[in-house]
Amino acid sequence: MSHEHVRSEKVCLNCGTYPLHDRYCHHCGQENVEPRQTLWHLVVHFFNDVTHFDGKFFSTLKYLLFKPGFLSDEYVKGRRIKYLDPIRMYLFISAVFLFVFLAVVHPPHRVSLKKDREIIHATDSMRLAEMEDNLNGLFDDYDHESVFILNVPYAYRHGEKYYDSVQQSLPAGKRDGWFTRYMAKRQIGMYEVYDEEPYNFLQAAIERFLHSFAKIFFIALPFFAFFLWLLYIRSRKKYYYVAHAIFSLHYFSVGLMFTLLFLPFIYLDLRYNSSDYPLYPFMVLALYIGMIVYLYIAMKRFYAQGWFKTLVKHIILSAATSALVLFIFFVMFLNSFLSAGH
Q: What pLDDT score was predicted for residue 197?
């Protein structure tokens, strides 16, 4: 509850309702407090609005983590005021996830023109050798990944105007289709950026990908809800698409929370475990298994079907979602390189 002073006037400043009989307007719900606020009140309101520090956030989080499917069932049944809104919950957890993820997972080391002379020499040697068609053996001697860009077709390295003029000179039947033209121009722009500063091209692309990593789950979420809608299409009168979307929001929020719990341990293992037996692959496997088990329990509780029928649908949903996430991962990773010139 707010600790601000209640106004002596019994008229609502928001809608003009008179007289007011309580702290809150019975017509619009606004609190009848003094409109002048201190900076501290603004800070308190900010945290209350974002996280409901009155206890709603933490109680919702407890149910979310330890009672799979419970919150989704409560929402569909109309019991909502006690819990944090699922969209707000997901957005807040996503923001925290992105902050921690970028703090833990760092992009590759940026090449310094003054300090990393060996890498610069290796890159320049490969580019020169590629121009002379003499790359044999060089890839064994140097291990600087950014030279992968040399695989861009040679015809794309003269700029977009050159490409357009070549296309115009060809007969209509032999010109590139719209998709090939689109990809060609993306590669042309990418090569122009690389040509200006080849030493940190890969690092910059990976950094772009890491900043967009959380978008993978955001893009996958509506498809996940659609898969659920297809699997439970016979129950569409009871479980309309929005009900599946609420279930998806809760499940993806849990996925981000589970990943948050594992990220520090994966980071510590990658950074400090110098043995030949790293632990992080087992941590990732444990995370994946945890999410699979959680999903089955949540589906069983929320959709209230038999264990075998739920298991079959769970397997189909897990396979389809895994394939979708891998596809989105690949597309976004590729786009991190192709968007360099755009």
A: 65
Judged against a pLDDT cut of 80, whether residue 208 lies above it is answered with no
Name beta bridge partners: 24. Answer: 31
When pLDDT is cut at 50, 70 and 90, the band that residue 223 belongs to is: very high
For residue 199, count other CB atoms closer than 10 A to its CB.
Answer: 19
- pLDDT at residue 133 above 60? no
Q: How does pLDDT run across 240-270, given as a tens digit for each residue?
A: 899 999 999 999 999 999 888 888 777 777 6
Which long-range contacts does 300-306 make (Cβ < 8 Å, 24+ apart)?
A: 300/69, 301/67, 301/68, 301/69, 301/70, 301/73, 302/69, 302/72, 302/73, 302/247, 303/232, 303/235, 303/239
In single-letter form, the type of residue at position 167 comes to Q
Q: Where are the domains of the chain?
A: 1-36, 117-201
- DSSP for 99-163, please give it: HHHHHHSPPPPPPPTTT-HHHHHHHHHHHHHHHTT--TTHHHH---GGGGGGGS-GGGGG-HHHH
Give pLDDT, residue 327.
92
Say which DSSP state 4 is in: S
Q: Which of 120, 189, 113 is nearest to 149 (CA)?
A: 189
Residue 6 three-state SS: strand
Cα(77)–Cα(53) distance, rounded to whole angstroms?
A: 25
CA 180/CA 191 separation, integer angstroms: 16
Over range 273-282, report the average pLDDT.
Answer: 71
Q: What DSSP line would sit under 295-310, residue for residue?
A: HHHHHHHHH---HHHH
Query: Which residues on neighbouring strands pair with residue 33, listed in sequence order?
Result: 6
DSSP string for 253-276: HHHHHHHHHHHHHHHHHHHH--SS
Closest by CA to 31, choosing from 50, 54, 3, is 3
Q: What is the pTM of this model?
A: 0.68
